[in-house]
Amino acid sequence: xxxxxxxxxxxxxxxxxxxxxxxxxxxxxxxxxxxxxxxxxxxxxxxxxxxxxxxxxxxxxxxxxxxxxxxxxxxxxxxxxxxxxxxxxxxxxxxxxxxxxxxxxxxxxxxxxxxxxxxxxxxxxxxxxxxxxxxxxxxxxxxxxxxxxxxxxxxxxxxxxxxxxx
Amino acid sequence: xxxxxxxxxxxxxxxxxxxxxxxxxxxxxxxxxxxxxxxxxxxxxxxxxxxxxxxxxxxxxxxxxxxxxxxxxxxxxxxxxxxxxxxxxxxxxxxxxxxxxxxxxxxxxxxxxxxxxxxxxxxxxxxxxxxxxxxxxxxxxxxxxxxxxxxxxxxxxxxxxxxxxxxxxxxxxxxxxxxxxxxxxxxxxxxxxxxxxxxxxxxxxxxxxxxxxxxxxxxxxxxxxxxxxxxxxxxxxxxxxxxxxxxxxxxxxxxxxxxxxxxxxxxxxxxxxxxxxxxxxxxxxxxxxxxxxxxxxxxxxxxxxxxxxxxxxxxxxxxxxxxxxxxxxxxxxxxxxxxxxxxxxxxxxxxxxxxxxxxxxxxxxxxxxxxxxxxxxxxxxxxxxxxxxxxxxxxxxxxxxxxxxxxxxxxxxxxxxxxxxxxxxxxxxxxxxxxxxxxxxxxxxxxxxxxxxxxxxxxxxxxxxxxxxxxxxxxxxxxxxxxxxxxxxxxxxxxxxxxxxxxxxxxxxxxxxxxxxxxxxxxxxxxxxxxxxxxxxxxxxxxxxxxxxxxxxxx
Lengths: 166, 555
Description:
The complex is a heterodimer.
Chain A: H1 5-30, E1 60-65, E2 68-76, E3 79-81, E4 93-96, E5 101-108, E6 113-117, E7 123-126, E8 132-137, E9 142-147, E10 160-165
Chain B: H1 2-8, H2 13-45, H3 56-87, H4 92-117, H5 135-165, H6 173-204, H7 213-241, H8 243-246, H9 254-266, H10 284-295, H11 298-318, H12 326-329, H13 336-359, H14 364-367, H15 371-401, H16 407-436, H17 452-488, H18 515-539
Helix pairs in contact in B: 2-3, 2-4, 2-15, 2-17, 3-4, 3-5, 4-5, 5-6, 6-7, 6-9, 7-15, 9-11, 13-15, 13-16, 15-16, 15-17, 16-17
């Protein structure tokens, strides 16, 4: 089979770029630890409270060390449960100081949901029987909308929350 | 000369009727699905609510199923039947089996569509478990898939019979391409068929209590990515083997075209994890391996880009344009059979770049399930693929009905292509930007928790409604052109433009037609990419999920 000289150059250049590209994302994934959310932990979706993170008193924001936080969330149609505040009212906004390291841990009681802190890399599928988690540093001040970005039923667009970085 | 004569020879009526039946469903789907799309953009603009209590997610499901699954599959199978009929012929028996396939797919489509329209299947076209639609929806899907397999095996048979009658000859290029596409389709749709028949149907009928959600999603995406190549390959067929004839040139390289199709077959299937990058329960190393396999598609894509532009240049230079870009200016811009697919090719440049971003292990996290993705596939399938299909329809439909594409209809086609381009530029660009800002896909209008971020999204949603309206005008115009070409254009003979090889073309290596080898490698790659992670997923399964009906409004 005949390949034109220009075509050889074109393909060689293309394949070389491809190799470089794959090396970059491979290096970032395996050496810098930037794999996408891939938690392998499981849970019984009919009894999520057996898992410490999802006991009612552990939901929402907790400071675990200086500048280190964790946020535990339970998703269900069509709501994110971030726990309750001092007045026993459901929390809708998570307030985090700028520069903190935050670990989001989430599971679902029913169908598949999404969890994205819009405009950031915190973007996870949430599936029954599985736990999803993602750790990030909240570097920029501002208000971020949390959206359910996987269709979960006819109230899907009413499932949201907010993160405020101050 | 023989080939030119064949291009001008109309099909027997009974063959043409079969091929046209698929076209009627295609263009009916375009109108119905397009109307749904228009309504969606209106709802999301926040200035319009649907009448009669119609649910946003009902029309969203109709839009996805009718355009993504029905329009594409019917057009592809009709077009491929016509290509096979032209290049290797069809027997009476094969035609009859073709009809069985058509009716089976149509019955399945109607079953699924009715179930959706009465609100019993608001599950979107991906029907993710454990959302549970009415069983009729899954039965409908199963019929569409199995009907399409009947067509596939008819196509295999057509080439087989031809080969037996033409010992030692290489198969016609277009017949080879059709067989590759159908092989890919059968291998890939096995995944979704297993999910539907083994998992969803018994579960929705109450014969099994629970479903393994991650397994069903993995089977869906094993099918979901080759699905998009199944849409794309017929467009590639036109780019490689039809467009050169339309611009008055020859095939660039028969072997290279075959090699590109083989590579697309091999690297289209073992890649589904790149749709599941942010999912729990799948080892990230296997995700990465499938990302690498996904990117291999860059190679046949670069080959295709080179071939196409080389054809343009060679053809122009043969016509005597010697300046650096003179050949480019002299392409037949006034011929809609060329212009519409050409715009499609151009759209594939940003479309392909977007695809690389989506499938990149990490960059995916920023855009996963945002409306960026919707913007991406409206560039690829709803521009590149559909404009090429339109470009095919402008000559295929009159060729089948014994009519002509008149200069006036050609002009309307050019206007249609421009309307489409403008509408899509507005809609797709605003979707891409809104997605980067975090706006989700597949959602009815919502202010969420309010605030500045949400406000920025709504402006882009308004732009999408404007783009969507322009596109719908394009759909109306296309429907008009189709009706004219099918029923009213003047009688005559429209060419079926199949390009020929140069007389001094190099021989195509025999190995390119070694089906055992290529299908063998394809299956080996699938086995490599899926066996271990699939065993992992099944071995580490959480409790199954019961059907959930209330979230989709079923009681």
